Amino acid sequence: MTASAITQKPITLPPVPELMERHKVFIGIGSNIGDRLTHLQEAVNRLDLLKDTSVSAVSALYLTEPVGETCQNRFYNGVVLLETALQPEELRRQCKTIEQELGRPEGYARWSPRVIDLDILLYDDLCLSTGTLSIPHKEVHRRKFVLIPLLDLANPLHPAMKQTMLQLLEQCSDRSVLIRIKETIRTKKRQAAR
């Protein structure tokens, strides 16, 4: 409290709102069912609407080969950069909700076709492993369809392996072919510029 020079009475200042810490998060996005571009655009729109979250950038999109069960459509894959105040588990829950709202069943067979896939790849320089979440994502360093779009946005250090994404790409044994497609995902910033 401070005193007014005129009245010498204490003046109570309004509380300063606490600034929430914002985290830099990279999320992998993918779809290989139906209108893949529309599914990815809707997922990015919904990520941007999450509380205390904004989409900063979206990578180019790539046509990629499926992993595991290969008798299915090719994927559109990309990476989204978010700034968020959400903690990792809450962000994971929100991503699962978006997947379900867009038509992905809660339980699905591994490597099966997907309307939408949202995976937290990196969250600041956090290393975390729980029963439901691993950060960095366990497959980041093994997948060109993650590393190449991630490099469109930045070249962060893998917090556990202590190597940049470019270094990991140079060592990656994944020999799949990625084709950059001309379609892009619009962010609110891009839409506002039109």
Q: Can you describe this structure?
A:
The chain is of the alpha+beta class and 194 residues long. It has a domain at 19-139 and 177-187: 2-Layer Sandwich (Alpha-Beta Plaits). Helices cover 26% and strands 26% of the residues. Strands 3, 4, 5, 6, 7 and 12 form a six-stranded antiparallel beta sheet that branches. A two-stranded antiparallel ribbon has the order 1-2. Strands 8-9 form a two-stranded antiparallel sheet. A hairpin with a 6-residue loop joins strand 1 (2-3) and strand 2 (10-11). Helix 3 runs antiparallel to helix 4. The model has no long low-confidence stretch (mean pLDDT 88).
CATH level-3 fold name of the domain at 19-139 and 177-187 = Alpha-Beta Plaits
Helix content: 25-40%
Structural class: alpha+beta
Apparent shape:
globular
Question: What can be said about the biggest beta sheet?
Answer: 6 strands, antiparallel
Give the amount of beta strand, in percent.
25-35%
CATH architecture of the domain at 19-139 and 177-187: 2-Layer Sandwich
Specify the CATH homologous superfamily of the domain at 19-139 and 177-187.
7,8-Dihydro-6-hydroxymethylpterin-pyrophosphokinase HPPK
Task: Write a concise keyword list for the protein shown above.
6-stranded antiparallel sheet; single chain; 5 helices; 194 residues; two-stranded antiparallel ribbon; alpha+beta
